[in-house]
Amino acid sequence: MKFVISLVVITLCLGLPAIAQEQHDTIRVNRTSTPIKIDGVLDDAWANAAIASDFWQYFPMDTSRAWNPTEVRLLYDDNFIYYLAIAKNRVPDVMGAYVTPSLRRDFRGEANDAVTFTLDPFQDETNAFQFGVNPFGVQREGLLTNGANGPMDLDQAWDNKWFAGAKQYKGYWIAEMAIPFKTLRYKESSQFWNAKFYRISSDGPERSSWPKVPRQYPIINLAYHGVMAFDQPLKKPGANISLIPYTLVNYQEDRVDQKVFERGSNIGGDAKIAVGPALNLDLTVNPDFSQVEVDQQVANLDRFEIFFPERRQFFLENADLFGSFGSQNLRPFFSRRIGIAKDTTTDLNVQNPIYFGARLSGKLDKNWRMGLLSMQTARDYDISQPSTNYTVGVLQRKVFSRSNIGIIAINKQPFRDRLLETASYDFNRVVGIDYNLASNDNKWTGKFFHHRSFDPALNQGKNGASSAMINYNALNWDAVLTIQDVGANFNPEVGFARRTDYRRAAGTVNWKFYPKKGALQSHGPGFDFDFLGNDTYGTTDWDLNILYKLRFRNSTIIDFRLRREYVYLFNAFDPTNSGGLKLEEGNAFANNLFRFMALSDARKVVYFDLSGRIGQYFNGSRANLEGTINYRKQPYGIFGLNFSYNRIRLPEPYADADFLLVGPKIDLSFSRSLFWTTFVQYNNQSNNLNINSRLQWRFRPVSDIFLVYTDNYYSDTYVNKNRALVLKCTYWLNL
Fold it and tell me: What is the DSSP letter of 4?
């Protein structure tokens, strides 16, 4: 504990602001009275716009100006910020061979030519909006959180109404955007916003930015930015109220529960109401998430629960305020717990409808953010599930240059129902405090937290979870150290705790070298370790890894590692998770294995990402290969194949297993408004064959008609379990 306290004191000091005043590249934003047509044409309306053109290369190197020059211009009027980018090619007067996986909105990754505009209206270097467009006029938008220290801090599931266009010319292409002020959150009378422009070019490939971003940090990182200087203070954006109603009809068959068929219809919707300049009130009544893309299944060979990310639109804006507390496998709040109940007779999770919900979230000023969420789920007599309220309150304060401290309180409270006498009415509560470190230059980042749960069934102490993590990132090396202590009775029912009752120490060190010539962009060795244990059993798990990472100038990535791991079974466990004979508790196993990961050049027509392992596994052996192979038919879409194969061999009398998961996926875009996705998943471990097919027509901005078909079969007999057909219409109405 003394070590943890010392670590916290040191990192608090690291968060202090720099003594010298920072200087940032600045672009002036002039007001315009000339109407601007969003069509990818540089016309006279842009004549008085200032130009930002000093783009620096970010990849493969960061020591020179961009190979592919880019110019950016900005204007504004009462309603919109206007953005124009001229993306030039290295070879002039030639039509570019630009890359796009499809015409679907919210593209992501290096297999895209694109220009992106990042806005930080409160200049807190922690949260921002992101808007982008590619040479085919396809839009993308997202929210950046936590300083954007990694790809997980970009949430592209956020959707909003704005406008874009693009046009290709010989030697260059032009992108235009019109972003409504009502889409953004900012302080009235503000005149300076942080901003960043970056470009992905398949020619090279190259990534470049204005201003310069050091290559050891993510290009989206908010510590490195320029400044937009409006020529006069901004006015209020005016009333901002949006209604998003939906209506649907559905048909479903459930042969497992002997329900032959069921027809139905439903209505509901959301509302977004701006409360002040930077707070948003979200309301939902009878929400339906049938159009949300299905989760990609994985082979489950673990002793603990698997995490799947949130995909439902209502939970996404300002989701970091609620969901960023804790760490990846130790979260006090996980929104996917809402709308899910457990059938105690089958021990399976089932859908639990939501009656209504409200969320007030956003900024109070430059330094303070707050969030308050309350959801009421339905009662279900079939599984003795009472109607339950979920309430979460969050308050976050910015400290030092880019760090923040936050507190969270969570309450899960079932409502008493006289018709459900056997139901459990125990509450579950969690309170916690987090400190998120981000130094001014982003070399030091970290997270420190302590959470405590309160539950009538577990009131004997040991109900806390503490963690300290610090990361140092320099050009040629980086290091991470994590220490955790999680009590046996820590029980965040509305969160995600992969396991409890352990103390953990983990660390990683990587070295990086940057060749000036050759195929490699960077490479280097590394070492990491992870130890877990508790007072009852001593050390229960550990692993040691020697690894090597290679990144190529064509964007190919290859990582591999040699690993030695140890597992002590404090509960009996079947290593195949197939119902075979279990290894007895008290056994311990030390194994050697080899793991690898390869990600190919995504600009190619055929590209892939693969990972695998081979070596010892408990008292036997395991070989695994999994990944995705994609074929791009530009610009119409992707034909992909997700797969996972596990070959497990154990000595007699334990069971062998061959698990195969195959998921062909077709993702087609007939235009920028009509899309069709079909995903088939065959999983012999769960004895399930799933088909999900979704047709989407975006008939107006952020307004859609969905036709969704789902079907499930037993994978061994192909006998149908259930099927459903849903026709859903959503409409975004601004008042």
Answer: H
Give the separation between CA 370 and CA 393, rounded to whole angstroms. 8
Measure Cα distances from 208 to 98, 193, 221 in Å: 16, 21, 13
**Distance from the first to the final alpha carbon of the chain:** 55
Q: How many CB atoms lie within 10 A of CB 235?
A: 10
Asked if 47 and 141 count as a contact pair (C-beta separation under 8 A), the reply is no
Structure tokens at 652: 């007699």
Q: How does 350-364 read in b/e, with b if 16+ C-beta sit within 10 Å?
A: eebebbebbbbbbbe
Indicate the Cα dihedral angle 100, 104, 110, 113, nearest 10°: 50
Cα–Cα distance measured from residue 462 to residue 244, given in angstroms and rounded to the nearest whole number: 45
- Token match 């934003």: residue? 29
DSSP bridge pairs for 682 = 662, 689
**Average pLDDT per block of 10 residues along the chain, 735 residues long:** 49 48 83 93 92 94 93 95 95 82 84 93 91 94 88 80 94 95 87 96 92 94 95 84 92 76 88 85 87 66 65 72 89 88 68 90 89 92 86 95 94 86 84 95 95 85 94 96 96 92 96 94 97 94 97 95 95 86 93 97 93 96 96 92 95 92 94 93 91 93 92 90 92 87
How far is Cα 325 from Cα 5, in angstroms, rounded to an integer? 19
> Tokens 């953990």 label which residue?
504
Amino acid 145: pLDDT: 87
pLDDT at position 540 is 95
Cα–Cα distance measured from residue 102 to residue 286, given in angstroms and rounded to the nearest whole number: 33
C-beta of residue 389 within 8 angstroms of C-beta of residue 378: no
Q: Are 128 and 141 in contact (CB under 8 A)?
A: no
Residue type, 426: D
- Is residue 521 a contact partner of residue 551, using CB atoms and an 8 Å limit? yes
Range 4-34 burial, b when 16+ CB lie within 10 A, else e:
beebbeebbebbeeeeeeeeeeebebeebee
10 three-state secondary structure: helix
Buried b (16+ CB within 10 A) or exposed e, 300-334: ebebeeeeeebebbbbbbbbbbbbbbbbeebbbbb
Q: Which residue has the tokens 């493969």?
A: 60
Residue 628: which H helix or E strand, with range? strand 620-633
